[in-house]
Amino acid sequence: MELQQRLARVGVDDEAVRGALEDLERVGLVDDVAFARELVESRAGHRLEGDRAIRSALRAKGVDAAIGEAALIESGGENEEARAAALAEQRAGRLSGLPAEKAYARLLSFLQRRGYGYGVASAAARRALAIQAEPD
Question: Which alpha helices (H) appear in 10-132, and where do they start and end?
């Protein structure tokens, strides 16, 4: 848990940290489930990040994997493909002066850095740039 790590970094005794956290949880001031939901909402809704990036952020904040997955599943936001498409559309205008291949490569790379897998990122980039998929 992030709060526990922060208190430990500033030198608070482990036993005191545990006691304080138990007290905070008992009165409802520390709620990992609510925290995970808010983080997912922020990352998916505002930043339009992919599921991979959201999972990484949850892990970095010390959220239990099961709680994080539940928050991702429960999120009422758009699905990952829709988020990728919206983000690609936003970004595509900045690439209009580039050759199609270069614009595609840059947009694909951007989407992957935002936590989207290759397949989702590629499809979103192609749609946003109106590029036909290459025949198999």
Answer: 14-26, 32-40, 51-60, 65-74, 80-92, 100-113, 118-129
Residues 99, 64 within the same domain = no
Per the document, the length of the chain is 136
User: Phi first, then psi: what are they for 79, rounded to 5°?
Assistant: -75, 170
Please give the single-letter amino acid code of residue 128: A
- For residue 49, give its domain range: 2-74
Q: What is the longest distance spanned by two Cα atoms in the chain?
A: 63
Measure the CA–CA gap between 126 and 103, rounded to whole angstroms: 10
Express each pLDDT in 25-76 by its tens digit.
Answer: 788 777 889 999 999 999 998 899 999 999 999 999 989 999 999 999 988 6
Examine residue 135 and state whether it is found in any structural domain, yes or no. no
Tell me if 134 is assigned to some domain.
no
Residue 41 CB coordination number (10 Å): 14
Q: Which residue has the higher pLDDT, 134 or 40?
A: 40
| Nearest Cα to Cα of residue 43 among 19, 72, 64, 15 | 72
pTM for the structure as a whole: 0.77
Rg, C-alpha atoms of the chain: 20
